[in-house]
Amino acid sequence: MSETTIESILQETRLFYPPSEFAQEAEINSLKAYEEHYAEAKADPQAFWAKLAQKELHWFKKWDQVLDWQPPFAKWFVGGKLNISYNCLDRHLTTPRRNKAAIIWEGEPGDSRTLTYAQLHREVCQFANSMKQLGVKKGDRVGIYMPMIPEAAIAMLACARIGAPHSVVFGGFSAEALKDRLEDAQAKLVITADGGFRKDKAVPLKAQVDLALEHGAPTVENVIVVQRTKEPITMVEGRDHWWHDLQKTSSPHCPAEIMDSEDTLFILYTSGSTGKPKGVVHTTGGYNLYTHMTSKWVFDLKETDVYWCTADVGWITGHSYIVYGPLSNGATSLMYEGAPRASNPGCFWDVIEKYGVNIFYTAPTAIRAFIKMGEDIPNARDLSSLRLLGTVGEPINPEAWMWYHRVIGAERCPIVDTWWQTETGGIMVTALPGAIPTKPGSATRPFPGIIVDVVDKQGNPVPDNTGGYLVVKYPWPSMLRTVYGNPERFRKTYWEEIPHIDGQPVYFAGDSVRRDEDGYFWIMGRVDDVMNVAGHRLGSMELESALKSHPGVAESGVIGIPDEIKGEEIVAFVILKNDFSPSDDLVKELKQHVMEEIGAIARPGEIYFTDVLPKTRSGKIVRRFLRQIAAGQEIVGDRSTVEDPTVLDKLEAEIREKH
Ligand code: PRX
Predict the structure, then answer these.
(1) Can you give the pLDDT at residue 473?
(2) Atom 24, ligand 1: residue with shortest CA distance
(3) Is the preceding omega at residue 72 within 30 degrees of 0, hence cis?
(4) CATH of residue 569
(5) Number of domains in the chain
(6) By residue range, what is the domain housing residue 603?
(7) 133-184 pLDDT, tens per residue?
(8) What is the mean pLDDT of the chain?
(9) Does residue 489 sit within a domain?
(10) Using CA atoms, how far apart are residues 217 and 183, in angstroms rounded to an integer?
(11) How far does the centroid of ligand 1 lie from the alpha carbon of residue 500, in Å?
(12) Is residue 33 part of a domain?
C-alpha cells in the first residue's frame, strides 16, 4: 500500500432505513429526492445556492454576483445586503411565529425562562442600544464570555444587529486563554456574567475577565456584566457596567444595520495542530444561508418542534445550531445551562421530558458517559416526544450509536451523524433523516452543494474503502473566509497541504476518511492521530471503537509510540466500566478482542487501565499527551488545553508505577 493512503479496516454492515412515518413528513423524503438535489447542486452550485438564498432569506438588496472565487478567497452573494438578526427575528414578527417560543431556557438550579420571538426581538434591540450607549459601532469586535443563559444569545444577535463582529470565548477557558483571544481580535467590549452554574457549582466568570484585563487586552474599554449567580464581584468604576442598569435606559427600537453579505459576522478561535489558536472568520450572507438550510433539512424542523442542541455557545455548534440556524428558521431552540452531574446524572432526560423535546443533538462523548452511568437512568424518564437524534464532534463508535438508537431513540428515531468543523461553519457530511439510510459510525453522505472527495497526499483519488484525506473541491457559502489577521496561515493550513486537483485548489480538512462502495463517508480521525504500525497506517478512532465494542470498556484513548521494529507500537489507555476490574487476563482478552475486530496488525502492544483520560473541554482526548506519557517522556506542551490538567500527573504516576 502507498505510504500516503491510510488503512481503514473496521467494517460495519448494519443499515437503518428512515422510518416511513418519518420520511412521509420530511421535506427531503427519499434517497431519490436527495440524489436529485445533490445532482442539481453539483451541476450548477451557484444556481442552486442562489435559488435557495432568494427563497429562504430576506435581503435588503439582492446580490450582483453569486460567487467571486479568487482561490483561496471566496465571496458569496457579492453586493447583497442583509442582516442575520433581521432574518432570525424581525421577519418572524409579522407571522404567527410572533408569540412562539424562540428560546426556551432551563438553568441548572431549575429556574427557567421562555422568550417568544417578539420578546427576544425586543431584548436584542434594547441590548444593541446598550452597546451603542457605550460607543460600540459597526466593525468593532466584541468579546463574549458567558454561561449558557439567554443573554449569551441576545448578546450575539445584538452584535449582529449593529454589525459588530462577536468573538465568543467558551466560559470554561482560563483568563490567559481569554486574554489571548481578546488581544488577537482587538476587542473593544467584553460581555460577561458574574458567573454561571455548572456541575452543582457557581463558576466565576467576571473574575477571569478582571484577570485577563489586568494582564493585557488593552483595547477593551468596557465590560458589561449580567447578574446570574449573585456571587460577590468587583466592578471597576467607569469600565464595568451591569447589563440590567444599561437596559433600563435603552430604547427597544433599533433598526438592523444594513450589512454587506461579506461583512464579518464573527470570529471564533479554534486550536490547530501547531501554533496559537486561529481566529476563524465567518461572514454574513453565506453563513446565514448555509446554517439556515442545514438546520432545515438535517434537523427536519417542523413548526411545532422543540429542538435541543446541548452544545455551548462558545463552540461553533452553539453558534450555528443553537442560535443562527434554528432562529433563522423560526424554530424553538432550547438552551440548557447545566451538565449531567452528581446531584442529577439524568438531568438531560428530565429536560427532554419536561419540555417534550422532539429533536436532540449531542456529542458522542456525552453518549459514552451516559452508557457508563447505565440505561436505568434514561429508562426512568418519558422520552417518547423524541423523533430525531443527532451527533457531532467526533466519530461515534458503532456501539455508542446502537445504544443511542436503542435506549434514547427507542429504535424509532433516525440518527444524523453530522461531520463538520469550526472552519466549515455548517454541517457538511450527514444523513438527511427522511432520505438517507444510516450505518452506525458513518456520517453518510455530503449535503447537497458540497463536493467532497477522498484523496492521497498528492491529491490523487483513492479507491473505495481505502483511507485517505478528506477534501472539499468547491467553495461553499459558509466556508471560513480567512484566519483573522493571518491570510497566509489560512492559505497554508487549508489550501496548500494537498496539491491542486484538476488545476483547482482544494480545502484540506485535516481529517482522514474512507468512502465505502455506497458513497458513505467514515471519518477516521484527525490526520495527526494516525499511526503507522508495521507499514499499516491506522486511525486511532478505529482502534478505540474496537476496544469500546468490548463489554468491559467504557472509554479508551489509543496512540502510537515509537517502536524499533514496527515503526510504531499501539498503546491503549482504557477506562473500564464499573463492574469490570483490571487483570492480566483482561489485558489478553482485550488484545484478542481488537485482533478479532480489526486484525492482527492492530493488536495493541500495551494496554493501561486508568480511570481518567486527558480531554479538552469539548471532550476530545488529547492524544499528544498520551503519547508522551506512554513513551515515558516528560510532558511538554500547553497543559491548559486539558480540562483538568491534574489528570496528566495522575496518569503519569500510574504508568510509572507499572514499569
Ligand atoms: O475531526 C473532525 C471532528 O471534529 C473536527 C472539527 O472540530 P471542531 O472544529 O471543534 O468542530 C466540532 C463541531 C463541528 C473535525 O475535523 N468531527 C466533527 N464532527 C464529526 C467529527 N468526526 C467524525 N464524525 C463527526 N460527526
Answers:
(1) 97
(2) 395
(3) yes
(4) 3.30.300.30
(5) 1
(6) 534-658
(7) 999 999 999 999 999 999 999 999 999 999 999 999 989 877 888 998 999 9
(8) 93
(9) no
(10) 5
(11) 24
(12) no
